[in-house]
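Today's session is about reading a structure prediction critically. Students often jump straight to the picture, but the first step is always the sequence itself: look for stretches that repeat, for charged clusters, for runs of hydrophobic residues. Only then move on to the predicted structure, which in these notes is written as discrete structure tokens rather than atom positions. Here is the chain we will use throughout the hour.
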Amino acid sequence: NGSVTITSGTTNVFNNNSFTGLIVDSGGGITINNTEANGNDLDGALLTSADDNGTGNVNISDSEFSDNQNGYGLDVLTDGNIDLDNVTVNNNGTGAVLGSTYGTGYVNINDSTFGDSDTTGNTWTGLHIDSGSTITLNNVIASYNGTNGAYLDAVGDITVTDSQFNDNVHFNFPQDPGLYATSNGGNITLTNVVANNNQFGAGVVLLTNGTGNVSVSDTSQFNGNGTFGIQAKTYDGDITLTDVEASNNASKGAYLNAYGSGNVFITGGDFVENGSYGIYATSSQGEVNVEDVTVTGNNITKFGAFLSGLNVFVSDSIFQSNTEAGLVIVAKEQVDLVNVTADQNGVNGVEVYTSQTNGCIKSEDDVINIAVNVDGGTYTNNGEYGLVVVPGPEGTLVFVNPATFGGNGLGDYLLDLTAPENCPEKEPSEPKPPTKPNNVVQVPFTGGTPVEQDCDLFSNTILELPNGTWIKVGCPFEGFSNLEGVLEEDLPSSLGAGVEFVAGISTSLTDGEGNTILNEDGTVTITFQIPEDSRARSYSVLFWDETLNDGAGGWVKLPVYEFGTSFPLHPDNPEDGRTIISGVQRVGDTITLTVDFSGVFVLVTP
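Below is the predicted structure for this chain, in token form.
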């Protein structure tokens, strides 16, 4: 239960080792400064401080964990707090994995880098945090990483200030963003955050549960990303954007959804030349309020903005040069347009609907009628009408103060009091075909024969060893699969000091002629049964990659699970299609991951 301190007036060096550079296991806390753990064959530093008493704080400062290309630069598990200050974690397989969920500790990072150029980015994710409390990032750079720049999962609040998450998501897995943050009981706050040019994914994805709010402010930028600039989802919490720029994104500039009673507030900001929508913001039971924003399509964006809520209020805002409508609003009670400009849009300047006139009315529902108030504004030079209002048969349109109209193709405005259409009767759905059973095959620890896949009769093939470890080969797959256990003494290479062997397997996927193949259109889920006598606090999975070291082979530490993220095994080799479809995670008393390839996999601790 004692603490460990590694410090020096110069530099502590743990470089160029054949396995892991530095391994520390201490229940009473770890303090490290002026330390290097670079260029090791697997991990840079592997630190564990978790004895269930909440005292295992980990403090790291003025240190570097880089060029550990087959493992993690920094891997930390604690039941206390984690503090990083002036730490560099570049050019690793995975940058840093920091976990305080063994207890209730926070994670704080200041003035640290997890990839900052096209030569220093990490192969997979730059920074991964699972916090049992809060996460705070200040002046952090996590850029040029292959998958997520930073992946943050916290029980409490997540606060990110003065940080950059640029040029991540190099592989065509569009669910990955520059910054992914999810809070399961707190708020998410971003201040002066930049997430630009994340190639295939969003700039940031922000998710809260319950009453957690999302707030983004202070000239934050989300430009040039492969899907959305900023995506935020809440339930009963509010979403607030203040002075945000989200431009030149492939799909939507801002994609905001409050699924419960939360409101959406957008004040200030520019949303220019996005693909489908400059702003797409909805609240199921709350309000949407937009003030002083500019949404310019330059004949690239289809719809300037789509806003849907109980009430919608838009003021002092510009929606111009979009190929369809400048602004589309769907409301259930009231819409207020105050000093709105809708100019040079391809169809209508502004369109206002109820949730029924924008769709249909169910036979059991009452008709919704809304009040639409227009206070000044300019509606000019649009392809059809300057303003179209379809408020329900008893809805109203009131000009509180005169608006300016002119140059619209079909006229100034159109008030359509048509009743909503009835929803079509649902046709009875066709019965689903019966679910195919699993083909479960009990196999011996060694010496089993390959099993042919039969996707006509079965949904998958499950091969299970006597110790409870199993693999599931999913359909579609044409070929044969095999599973055998591997003892530690039979591994292709020894494990490094400080790493404990727990279990090993050898899998194969072959065609009819015995050639090794991938399950390119399906999956291979590997599930290790944790031995009943294992008292380990954390586990990892290593894969023996025969292509490393000029064909001599080497161990690779497979990435930790991240929602929606897949990881190419060798992204620098386009001819190598092997992919970790879902990373390593603990589920009950098992450790599981999903891949599309075969080989030797080893469960180790820590």
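Discussion point for the tutorial: Residues 438-605 form a domain with the Chondroitinase Ac; Chain A, domain 3 fold (CATH 2.60.220).
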